[in-house]
Predict the 3D structure of the following.
Amino acid sequence: MLRITFLGTGGSTPTPNRNPSAIAVNREGELMLFDCGEGTQRQMMRAKTGMTLNSIFITHFHADHVLGIPGLLQTMALQGRKEPLEMYGPRYVDKFLYHLLALGYGERSFEVKAIELKPGDVVKRPKYEIRAIKTVHNVISIGYVLEEDRRPGRFKREKAIELGVKPGPLFSKLQSGHSILVDGEEVRPEQILGPPRPGRKIVYTGDTRPCESVIEAGKDADLLIHDSTLSEETKQYAIDYMHSTASEAAEVAKKASVRKLVLTHLSARYSDLGGVSKLEEEARSVFEKTEVARELMTIEVPYRDKEQ
């Protein structure tokens, strides 16, 4: 399971229909948060994601991306959390955390660790990793790539039996990449496994102008979640404030050959259905497989070989 829940999809200020930025990612039961705008903990309750986070990944320190952290930490402390929490972010994440804890959020019941990342840094986890990537905003910022390890190829049961391997523990050993002996003859995994299969890959930009670093990092991603604050008619504002238009996000998706693009961080001026449709139409004219994020929208990212 790789489930993405959009807890906040608005830009800068909340609206009746959109909270500020926050995305929950549940990978095989491991829950992490990317950005945490105000009201995120309430959105987590509404979405029933739970609050057993192991990590928070911050793209930058603008208020609409971090103001939800104090309340979230306090709630977890009141719930009796004991497990440490890791908070990743760009330069100054340690100072940011220091001032939060100075106000008494979370430090009484559990440890919060600040880990600074710069573009190219990797957080390695069992069977996947999270990489920091360069983004282009008007403050220090980074984006993130979550990419799973390559998986073994499909197991060829008939071939294994043909080679004298009996179903059972020896099958599992071969599938795990270990050679075995059958009647004194070696049977190697590559004899009964197909070519390695890709894991899943998602990219979250946070706030950014279109840039080559995101295109490069997003190559062949299953899902690109990109800043699309404005439309083409207000493109100069996007340039001035270092955001992207929906069309520009679609150009990035097209150049990176991603499988799906989700537009997020929408300006309050597009809070009605007409505005949302406008952004979606602009983007789809460039990259068809585009969707505008809705509050509490959930996407299940499948393995590629399981799609029809």
Remarks:
- The first strand starts at residue 2 and ends at 8.
